[in-house]
Structure formats: C-alpha cells, structure tokens
Amino acid sequence: MSEDSSSSRLSSRGQDKSWLDKLMSSFSAEPKSREDLLNIIKEAAANQLLDDEAVGMIEGAIDVQERQVREVMIPRSQMVVIKADEGPSDFLPTIIESAHSRFPVVGDSMDDIKGILLAKDLLPLILNGTDGFSLDHIIRPASIIPESKRLNVLLREFRENRYHMALVIDEYGAIAGLVTIEDVLEKIVGEIEDETDEDDDGYVRKVSDSEYVIKALMPIEEFNEEFEAGFDESEVDTIGGILIRAFGHLPTRNEVTEIDNHIFRVLYADSRQIHLIRLTLPE
C-alpha cells in the first residue's frame, strides 16, 4: 500500500472521527430546545451521518410528543361500526367491504360502545356455522381515551396493554372518533400501505363485469362518463346526492333503489351521509 493511499485513508478517518466527536459534543451540550436538537440532526444528515429516511423518522418521533389524538383520529362520521343486535348475515357484508380488521360494536347509538370486534374472531363461523352465535361472546373490551391524550403516551399504552384500537371521546363524553396504532406509527414512519388500501383518488372498484363498489362522493359527471349513464347534474353534484333524492331520505345500510335500470345498494352510511355503494349495471 502506498504512503499516499494510507495518508488519504487516515485523513478520511480523521474527518469522520472529527464529525462524530462534534456530534457527540453537541449532544453533550444538552440542546435547549426542539429546534436545537433538530438542527443537530439536520447537520448530521448534511454530512451523511444519517440518511433522509432516518432523519424523517427522528423528526416524526420528536413531533409525536407534541401532538394529540384529535389530530390523527378517524372522525366519528367515518367510523365503520357493527350494531350489537345484528346477526352475521347483517354485518359480514360490512366487514368484507371495508376490509378492516377491527370494528367498534355499538348499541342504540354511536355513543353506546359495547366493545371491539376482531374480524379474525369470526373465523370459527366457517366451520361451525352461525347456530348459537352471539357477538357478546366474542367482542373484546374497548379502550376509551380523551381526544387530548398525547400520541407518545398513547403509543406506550398500545405497546404495554397490547391493543391496537381506542375509541376517542370529546370533552362532553361523546364519541368523537377512533384511533389505531397504525395512525400513530404513520406520524413517525410515514404512510403505511397494505394490500387492502385503495387509491384515495379512485372512486370505483370493479367487483365483476356488472357490479362495482363506488364512493358516494363520486361526481355525477365522472359517473356518467365511467358508466355511460345520463344522470342529471343540474341539482346535485355527487352520486350520493342522486341516491338521497331517489330515496327521499338518508338511507341506511342495505337499502336498495333503482335509477334508470341501475341498481344501487347502500353498503355504508352514517347519520350524516352515504359513504359506499354497490352498483349493479343494467344487463
């Protein structure tokens, strides 16, 4: 090995050591604020001691300490729930269509939380059938938390108590929404997608040649173009609005109506709006 090569390598090591020493001395100086700490981390990244992904996760972990549940929760209007008095034939379509793994079980209202249903606990139905089935026997206790709870505290509780979903209440004790461990982790590592996630920009999912699941917020203009329909665009803007006008009221799940030979079945609706619809095209 040449002396020049050895000198170059030693020089490089010396620079690395210098940067490590500088980084360690910066930490030993005890940063006085969040901004001081972030500046140290960004300086380390600028000198290639950390990559962008690592910096993003560190910043996310720091940010979680200052955020509250209300900032990441799924709002009440978007919750997919199961009613305690429903049978498998009633709630299984909802579970299948939503592709979620956990569902709040409610009584007479959204504020009457009975527990949490895990989709995997329904697997025995495949072998045993529905004879003698009761939701009361398989639902699990629900964790109720205030919307002001800090995310870092909630994440610790998720880990320690080994649960993945919590119901969120507002200052008056009413259900404001729900939050999952995934919602919290996404604030640290970024968006987590799996095989059941749908494109947020897409309104239509094909089920068969004649059946589709569509979002009620789909603009009528796009619906007409997609399905070669001729629905009136003058009075309402979305296909959900067309359905409410056809029903004459805000429909509930499984209500069916036919418009110009197009059959619509409501898959998911709450007390405010329709969310998801199954469309059967005319033959």
Verbal overview:
Residues 73-132, 138-195 form the CBS domain. This is Magnesium and cobalt efflux protein CorC. Belongs to the UPF0053 family. Pfam families: CBS, CorC_HlyC, NMB0537_N. The protein is α+β, with helices and mostly antiparallel strands and 283 residues long. It folds into three domains: 3-50, no CATH class; 70-189, CBS-domain (Roll), CATH 3.10.580; 204-280, Uridine Diphospho-n-acetylenolpyruvylglucosamine Reductase, domain 3 (2-Layer Sandwich). It has helices at residues 3-28, 34-46, 52-64, 88-98, 124-128, 151-161, 181-189, 220-227, 239-247; strands at 74-75, 82-83, 102-106, 113-118, 144-146, 165-169, 175-180, 204-206, 211-215, 256-259, 262-269, 274-280. The strands form three sheets. The chain has a five-stranded antiparallel beta sheet, sandwiched between helices. A four-stranded mixed beta sheet has the order 1-7-6-5. It has a three-stranded mixed beta sheet with strand order 2-3-4. A hairpin with a 4-residue loop joins strand 11 and strand 12. The longest helix has 26 residues, at 3-28. It is globular, with a radius of gyration of 26 Å. Mean pLDDT is 81; it is low at 5-16 and 195-200.
